[in-house]
Amino acid sequence: MLDRLLFRRIDNSPLIIFRIFFGILVSLECYGAIATGWVRRTLVEPKFTFSFIGFEWLQPLPGPGMYAYFFIMGTLGVLIALGYRYRLSILAFTLLWTGVYLMQKTSYNNHYYLLIIISFFMCFFPAHRSHSLDAKRHPGIRKDSMPQYIKWLVISQLFLVYTYAAVAKVYPDWLDLSFIKLLMQSKSHYLIIGEWLQHDWVLKAIRAAGILFDLLIVPALLWKPSRKFAFAVSIFFHLFNSVVFQIGIFPYLSLAFTVFFFEPERIRKVFFRRKPPFQSRQLAIPPGRNWIIAGWGVFLFVQLILPLRHHLIEDNVLWTEEGHRMSWRMMLRSRNGHIQYRVVDKKTGASSYVQPGDYLSEKQRMRLAAYPDFIWQFAQVLKQEYAKLGQDVAVYAKSKISINGRPMQPFIDPATDLASEPWRHFAHHPWILPSRLER
């Protein structure tokens, strides 16, 4: 039964049209990052870049290098959509996108991480076997079918994303509308809809929709009687998110995924009318069956447990941020604060205060004040800067933060030398003061 579920051949039209959508969207994302100034603000102008810890060696290219970097990624997206040298194009895009993701986290978005996962999937999927320049150049690779496990892999990944997003919203600040009010107040200046978004009934609708949509959309799309209605709801939901939250291609990528939920024959009729229908229900078990099942099984297992890691770390993730990223905890909190750094020469005992503004952009300073990994990383930067001057220093931080509009509370132990503290990827950092938040 497992073999039939995974290895039965089905029409590959959903995969082919998704490849085209995916290529177009990532090219728009990359070209748009240049055109809107995102690359300039995030990677070119800052003197220092907060990379993911452990990947400090990944730094922006000097001069106009990052403009060229994003232009190449955008062009690779075009090649993916056209299916030209597909394997090389998708592999190159995946590596480059992963590089820029790890290179900076000041402008973190969940869909940046999702793009890594989907790009990784696409490296292995035979998405160039039809309606591609590769198939035109090499007719021998043409196929009208694909193994069914491709569909289930994508759906399984989406199910994990949406389910974790729904469960994460079941917490006090979402349920009592306090975070949603805060979120919508920042949109009050929007033309026409800004005032409308402040109404209490709209906030309550957003509260319910945020949980119910994420929790039910995958089952509703899978069930044929509710599929069309679920698709219509998806269009409204994602367009609403696109207009209100302006989160780039993510809403449209989410809509592109829905092609995997419809019958392949329907997708063929809509997008590829000249493509011959695939009639066979052939079961084609590949030579590496066990390796395929094991490999994708391990990957999905990691995706299953990674978002749960914060439950094994002391204190509330809403306070500590430990285990927040890569966990599909989307639109759950607003953090702000202020911080003061004191540098002490270990030899002389002389101390001085450092102005982060001398090193960082405005957006980086906002992140620095409220996120523990930023606070720790900047302490390491200061330690290195003073080491170049021949001084061995201790670095202390005095920080207060506000989460979701709460009063400011002390965040970092001011007596801890952060420059001497190790970073723990999967454990609590004792220099983060205990929270007073409800769990």
Describe it for me?
Helices cover 53% and strands 8% of the residues. By secondary structure, it is an alpha+beta fold. The protein folds into 2 domains: 2-311, no CATH class; 335-420, no CATH class. The strands form 2 sheets. It has a 4-stranded antiparallel sheet with strand order 4-3-5-6. Strand 3 and strand 4 (351-354) form a beta hairpin. It is globular.
Which terms would index this structure?
2 domains; 439 residues; alpha+beta; two-stranded antiparallel sheet; 19 helices
Short characterization:
The chain is an alpha+beta fold and 439 residues long.
Mind sketching the topology for me?
Blueprint: H1 2-7, E1 9-11, H2 13-35, H3 38-44, H4 65-82, H5 86-103, H6 110-124, H7 133-137, E2 145-147, H8 149-168, H9 172-175, H10 178-185, H11 193-196, H12 200-222, H13 224-245, H14 250-256, H15 264-271, H16 289-305, H17 317-320, E3 335-345, E4 351-354, H18 362-368, H19 372-388, E5 393-403, E6 409-412
Antiparallel strand pairs: 1-2, 3-4, 3-5, 5-6
